[in-house]
Design goal:
The complex is a heterodimer of chains A (390) and B (299). Chain A has 390 residues and is α/β, with parallel strands linked by helices. Chain A has helices at residues 14-25, 37-49, 53-57, 59-76, 110-124, 149-158, 168-181, 200-206, 355-362, 379-385, and strands at 2-3, 29-33, 78-79, 89-95, 129-135, 139-141, 211-217, 233-237, 245-254, 262-270, 276-284, 287-291, 295-297, 302-309, 316-323, 334-338, 345-350, 367-372, 388-389. Chain B has helices at residues 14-20, 67-73, 106-123, 150-159, 168-176, 198-201, 219-222, 247-271, 284-294, and strands at residues 36-55, 77-85, 88-94, 127-133, 137-138, 144-145, 184-189, 210-217, 228-234, 240-245, 274-279. The chains are: A alpha/beta (390), B alpha/beta (299).
Amino acid sequence: MNIAAPQFMGWAILIPLLLLMWFLKIRRRKSEVSSVLLWKKALEDQRVKSPFQRLIKNLLLLFQLLCLLFLILGLLRPESGSLIYASRLNVIMLDRSASMSSLEEDGRTRFEIAKEKALDRIKEVDGERAVLISFGENAEVLTPVTTDGSLLTRVVNEVMPGSGVTNFEDALELALSVVRQDELIPTAGAGSDGAGRSDGSEELLSNQPDARIFLISDGVVPEWKGDSIEVPVIVDSVGFSSSNVGIIAFAARREFTEEGDLKVLLELKNTGDDPLEGVLRLLGDGEVLEETEPKILEGKESWVLSFETISGPSLQLEARWIPTKSDALALDDRAWLVLENMRKLRVVQVGSPNLLLENALLVIESVELFQIEYDEVDPETLASEFDVAV
Amino acid sequence: MSNSEPSAAPLLDEDFLARCAKLVLVSRNVLQGKVRGEKRSKRRGMSTEFADHRDYIPGDDLRHLDWNIFGRLEKLFIKLFEEEEERSVFLILDASASMSSGEPDKWRHARQVTAALGAIALSSGDRVYLRVFDEQLRIPVPPLRGSRSILKLVDVLEKLEPESGTSLDKSLRAHAAPCPAGAIQILISDLMDPEGVESAFRQIPGVRGESWLIHLLSQSEAQPDLQGDLRLVDSERQEHVDVTMTTSVLKAYQSALSQFREEIRDHCRRYKIQPVEVSTSVPFDQVVLDVLRQKRWLS
């Protein structure tokens, strides 16, 4: 049951007052008895056996009490249809994006600190309703709306850090939809007068649900471009370290050049504010293929580099940023690529055969030679079918 | 004589006194009075009632020699007679304020029973000690003896007024110290003592003679006829209880009263005191002539 007007709860003080007045009102007739010894004992037994006997006997008092009770209940405007007592809704949002795995100076990850903050918030809202949402690239509601602090605590303890970037928009949309769909949320004011008119402030009050959102993240919440947020959003920031170099792009292509058979492209970026020094190492199936000289990346600086190397039959390529000192997030210091098997170069000779050329090409192991006539050439498909046309 | 008689009327009338003269208190234990009285003692001694013979021992009073046997058998025998001893009867009357309340009048009823027992004892030659107590023991009159003292006893009782509180234990301790063994002790009280009765009863154990208890309650105490919202004021102490009379409250009172009476009976059994529960709704003469005779206190 929901109480629409809890401010009238104070009227309940009238009940003990009424009882007090009744007790004061009773005018007792004096009667002398030889001794009150037995009466005291009798009343003691009586009180133990039926403390409300006296009230039951006094129907008028009972009637007055019931009237008062109904009056107070009427003022409180109880509403049915709810499952639990409607209290403020607290939406606790926990960032589990990849950056939350960054190490802080105390040796803990940001995610561990964020979980601790979430647990603190759960304790803080004890007795109120709460719901837990985790977000990264995708947002997910982890618990139903509940007053069960132990459930929330357990789920927070079970959440694992994720990967990917932080999608604040989706996460906030989800949180707001939870708030808007919750029918139990009481409003902060009456909203309009009896005639249905309302001024701006009243309307604002009436439309403002009693809820709040706790956003626990290491990122900067971007400017919100959606509908107006009608509940307070309290941001709990985690993470202070800003020194991190990560591999943000990694690509490779087998290409036959004078320098080798593989061309590799890499991009690294220092997302923090402080400069960081390190080397980049390229490995093929665990063997070191290339390694750069030590390089200092200033804050926010990007570093694009490419390699042309001989990978041979290697299938797994790994790029590894090795900082001179550890950076905040080790997760983005390594990247992997799986290469396709080496295939032979498709060379086509158009027109009449040329033995000299043919023999020269066949000497190369990685060349597969084809012969077609001029009238068989389809310029549109030629480039996709063959690597080289002679 | 009935309960409706005015309080100014004498406690005992002449007709009742005449009927008392034919009664005697029956004690089952040995009498050990200091002077010869009119009660047959289990001890053999000097009186007119022949009991037995025994051999003559030098020094015996030759006036009690049975000369007839000596004449026939030439043997010396001393005639023994049942010794008649004077008995001590202690009438211990509760004169606390609680005895003055209740309907019918508990105080007058208690004094009438006391006067009747005293008259019976005096008319049968017992020595009567009147003791009254409230918070302490008082001796309103010296020991009485002989039928002529009956009027004095009645007169003293008529002039007594109940005082304030009750201290049963303290009063009976004061009584027990000089009380001789073998005496009949009759306690007349409502026993409304907040400190309880067990310790007091220990002072008058039946093994030292005869201990009788007349537990007197008024009709209004036994069957209270109260209604409405009342403030019950204690007649002895500055105490009161507020109570709204309901059937359940009256039931609880009856339960408390039954428990109280049962406790009294238990203590009496322990200390060999013979109890009689008396209500003021029963006229005192009926109590004396019927109830006490049925209890074989009187014959």
